[in-house]
Specification:
Number of helices: 10
Structural class: alpha/beta
Strand content: 15-25%
Strand order of the largest sheet: 8-7-6-5-4-3-10-9
Radius of gyration: 17 Å
Number of strands: 10
Oligomer: single chain
Largest sheet: 8 strands, parallel
Helix content: 40-55%
Shape: globular
Order of helices and strands: EEEHEHEHEHEHEHHEHHEH
C-alpha cells in the first residue's frame, strides 16, 4: 500500500496522518444551512470567517453554497456557481489554506476547481453525477467520497456501508483519480437512522481497513441532537466527543463548525495517545 492512507498533498500543503488528525473548517455560504444558514453568505462575512478559522487552526476550508440538510431545497448549478465563485476567489487571494468545495454537481466542481479550489467534497461519493469523478481527475483534485443513500434501508448496515464506499472508490479510480487523492467519509446524517449513525461512529476503525484516510463530519448533526436532546446551537460538547473518537480511530480529518474548540480537543487527545 506504500504511503496511501498516511500522506496526502492538498493544494500546496503536505499532510501526514501519522498520529495526527486535522481540522476542516466549514464555511456555509447558504441562506438555509441547518446550522448557520445566512450567517456567512455575504462576501465580507465569508472572508472574515475564513480568516478566523485559519487563525483558530483549521488546516482546510470546506466551502458550500447549497444546503444538504434533511429536507433541503436543491438549487441549480448556475445559482450554486454564482454563490461560490466570488467567495472562492476572495478566500484564495487572502488565505493560504487549501480549499475544498462541497458539491455533488460536476458543473459546479469544474468551475470551483478552475477558480482555485483544491479538493472536491461530494456527499454522494461520485454516485449522483456521472461526470464528477472525471472532473476531479482532470483537475488532479483530492476527493472526499461520502457515503449516502436515498433511504436508510439495509440488510446488513455496516457491510453495505463499507461496500458502498468501495464502490465510490472504484468509480474514482476508473475515472483516473489517484489512490493518494482519495478520502472517505462514513456520511454521518446521510441515509442513516439514528442507530445506524451511532454504529458508523462506533466502527470508524473498521472503515480504515478499506485502506484510505477517513474524514468524519459529525459536527452539530442530528445524532448529537437526538442523543443529548439539544438544538443545533447547543451541540458543541457532543461534537467534541465525536472528534475525540475520530482521533482515537486515527481519522485524518474532522469537518467541523467550531474550529478553535475542536483543535484543542484534538491536541489533548493526541497528547494522551501519543506523547511519551
Amino acid at each position: 500500500m506504500g504511503t496511501r492512507g498516511v500522506r496526502m498533498k492538498i493544494g500546496q500543503r503536505e499532510f501526514d496522518f501519522t498520529k495526527k488528525t486535522y481540522v476542516m473548517g466549514i464555511l456555509n455560504i447558504t441562506p438555509d444551512s441547518f446550522s448557520d444558514g445566512g450567517k456567512w453568505n455575504r462576501l465580507d462575512q465569508a472572508l472574515f470567517r475564513a480568516q478566523q478559522m485559519e487563525e483558530e487552526g483549521a488546516a482546510v476550508l470546506d466551502i458550500g453554497a447549497e444546503s444538504t440538510r434533511p429536507g433541503y431545497t436543491p438549487i441549480s448549478a448556475e445559482e450554486e456557481i454564482e454563490r461560490l465563485m466570488p467567495v472562492i476567489e476572495k478566500v484564495k487571494a487572502n488565505i493560504s489554506l487549501p480549499i475544498s468545495v462541497d458539491t455533488y454537481k460536476s458543473k459546479v466542481a469544474k468551475a470551483a476547481l478552475c477558480a482555485g479550489a483544491d479538493m472536491v467534497n461530494d456527499i454522494w461519493g461520485f454516485r449522483y453525477d456521472a461526470e464528477m469523478a472525471k472532473a476531479a481527475a482532470n483537475a488532479g483534485a483530492v476527493c472526499c467520497l461520502t457515503h449516502n443513500r436515498k433511504k436508510a434501508e439495509y440488510q446488513d448496515f455496516f457491510q453495505e456501508l463499507a461496500a458502498d464506499l468501495r464502490e465510490s472508490v472504484q468509480i474514482a479510480k476508473n475515472a483516473g483519480v489517484s489512490d493518494d487523492a482519495i478520502l472517505l467519509d462514513p456520511g454521518i446524517g446521510f441515509g442513516k437512522t439514528y442507530e445506524q449513525n451511532l454504529e458508523a461512529l462506533r466502527n470508524l476503525g473498521q472503515l480504515k481497513k478499506i485502506g484510505y484516510p477517513l474524514l468524519l463530519g459529525a459536527s452539530r448533526k442530528s445524532v448529537v441532537g437526538l442523543t443529548l436532546n439539544l438544538p443545533v446551537s447547543k451541540r458543541l460538547e457532543g461534537t467534541l466527543v465525536t472528534t475525540v473518537f475520530a482521533v482515537m480511530s486515527q481519522c485524518a480529518f474532522v469537518r467541523v463548525h467550531d474550529v478553535k474548540e475542536n483543535v484543542r480537543a484534538i491536541k489533548m487527545a493526541e497528547a494522551i495517545l501519543y506523547k511519551a
